[in-house]
Amino acid sequence: MEGGENENGGKKRGCGCSKQDFLPEESFQSCRSYLNALCNTKSRLRDRLLARSADHMELHEIRGRSQHEMKKRLNWWDIIWFGIGAVMGSGIFVLTGEAARNHSGPAVVVSYLISGMTALLSVLCYTEFCVELPVAGGSFTYLRVELGDFVAYIAAGNILFEYVVAGASVARSWTSYLATLFNHDPNSFRFHASSFPEDYSHLDPIAAVVSLLICITACMSTKGSSRFNSIATIVHLLVLLFILIVGLTKANPQHFSNFAPNGIRGILKASSILFFAYVGFDGVATLGEEVKNPGRDIPIGLIGSMLIIILLYCLLSATLILIQPYYQIDVNAPFTLAFQAIGLKWAKYIVALGALKGMTTVLLANILGQARYFTHIGRTHMAPPFLATINEKTRTPVNATVVMTLVNSIVGFFTSLDVLANLLSLTTLLIFSLVALALLVRRYYVGGETTSSNRNKLILFLMLIIGSSIATAVYWAIGKNGWIGYAVTVPIWFIATLGLNLMVKEAKKPKLWGVPLVPWLPSASFATNVFIMASVDGASYVRFGIWTLLLLLYYVFIALHASYDAAKETTDTTSAATATCLEDGGAPQLHH
After folding, report:
1. What digits encode the pLDDT tens for the residues 382-405?
2. How does it sit in the membrane (predicted)?
3. Is the pTM of this model over 0.85?
4. By mean pLDDT, which of 142-156, 232-246, 371-385, 421-435 is the weakest?
5. Residues 473, 218: Cα–Cα separation, whole Å
């Protein structure tokens, strides 16, 4: 847009932006109105802290703030490929070595199965929400509807941070694997700026360029992105198939003789590491708004892709053990050096090519998920509402995609892999835990319908489930080898879940597709995710605390007042429409 005036009379700058694009709400129209808003912070906190949205609000009124709708062009086939492409990056080529050599031994296959089933529990919870609420916000929307604005804001702010870190990390890894293909040291493909601090001195233009190319693909068309993802993922699967076939020709079953050298604790410790090879499907859930038939396509796509991934991971890890004894596996490049050990040095190029293809699809899924998260957050005015805009021509969230790509590119251009790797892990597990908890709330509590008795019992049982899950995780984390602690915490979790099943009436049934065995599976999902959180290093909790503090500052000074004004405007509009309809002698039309 050229310079001129916007529809509210605000002067546009040369770049086409004005204050109205970022802070159009009443509280920010003048210094006096902003000071008045700050004076009312306490009352607004009381109003918004536990305010829950409603399904019809998210599906219609909130989504309508984007002016244009995204095209519904995806089916179950697209979602399966997006699911595989989003999850299967370089994790299998990196994490398997540490898990097998240092913790589980040949039982790494069991560890992959355990962590895969844990991920599948989270996939089930996401699937029910995604079918019922097929909008771009993903977990932000689910938490906003069931646990309230504040919890959703803190969770979404943290997961966006991890998306940026993950995107930058994968982009720099892309450069590293490209260097491997040409027999070069990774830093030889980067520029060294000696005046910068060491961790930020190796500038990576390739990472930035790859991110920008992925951005262009994501902006042009979601269906086009799906086609590109499908082709790249098929190539990746062919590489994995090659690894399986060639590896099995050199198999030695004797390598499985000492199956679990570190016992059950080693298997579970490896599972907590390998769980991060399964993350990424949460970003695919943000594509729900663009799916033709959510009730059919989303369950087939999300659950089907996760089952395929679990099978492939177990087969690949078993093949690695059959090629090389676990105590000889290299921690950093397990598959590459395993092939070298059996005389197939050329195979490292195939492995590097597979990793490159995998990381490309992960980058695409990452930016698609980031942009759609940010789009829906912008719709609620917790982020600048210009991010909520859907491009009229492409019907994709171009603004959010470009902004997030620029952030990813800047971080990836400067920051070393060591720094980025240490920033990942905690938030994803927290989000998965909260989504499982939100599903229990959704099934057993409906405002205005659930009796106070059932509500109080629900709160009691949820507190017991949360408390016993945390206690079990802490007992594990402090390294106690005895069973006494588990003999107390696990029965409490079981009795609380049983009590919820038997003593609280289910308040809401899913319309199209629902998680089976509720409350057992969501409760188990919460407990297992909290258990894995116990393996995350303490520094991650410190970083989580610092970033959350920054989010709180933004919330108190900006997001709270912006979302309060937006909610008030929506309420006033709805009330006016209802009053007009009643005056005309008709009934208000409600979305169901």
Report:
1. 988 889 999 989 999 999 999 999
2. Multi-pass membrane protein
3. yes
4. 421-435
5. 39
Kindly indicate the confidence band of residue 9, based on its pLDDT and cuts at 50, 70 and 90. Answer: very low
Entry field: residues in the chain: 592
Q: Is 296 exposed, middle or buried (0-12, 13-18, 19+ CB in 10 A)?
A: middle
* Rounded CA separation 128/146 (Å): 13
CA distances to 172, 270, 414 from 418, in Å: 11, 21, 12
Q: Nearest-CA neighbor of 362 among 588, 153, 86?
A: 86
- DSSP annotation string for 220-255: H-HHHHHHHHHHHHHHHHHHHHHHHHHHHHT--GGG
Q: In the CATH hierarchy, which fold is given to the domain comprising 68-429?
A: Amino acid/polyamine transporter I (1.20.1740)
Q: Are 493 and 469 in contact (CB under 8 A)?
A: yes
Q: Which helix (H) or strand (E) holds 574?
A: helix 560-583
Compute the 3-state secondary structure of the chain and give helix, strand, coil in percent, each to the nearest 5. 75, 0, 25
Would you tell me how many other CB atoms lie within 10 Å of the CB of residue 8? 10
- Per DSSP, the three-state class of 74 is strand
Q: Which two tokens stand for residue 341?
A: 């050990």
pLDDT of residue 4: 41
- Residue 249: alpha-carbon gap to chain centroid: 38
Nearest to 385 by CA among 18, 43, 31, 3: 18
Tell me the pairing of strands 4-5 and 202-203: unpaired
Cα–Cα–Cα angle for 27, 32, 35, rounded to 5 degrees: 70
Q: Scan for tokens 């995204």, then name that residue.
A: 70
Instruction: Name the phi and psi angles at 262, rounded to 5.
Output: -110, 15
In which residue are the tokens 């395929």 written?
Answer: 308
- Rounded distance, CA 169 to CA 547, Å? 18
User: Could you tell me the residue ranges of all domains in the chain?
Assistant: 68-429
227: nearest Cα among 391, 354, 77: 77
Mean pLDDT of 203-230: 92
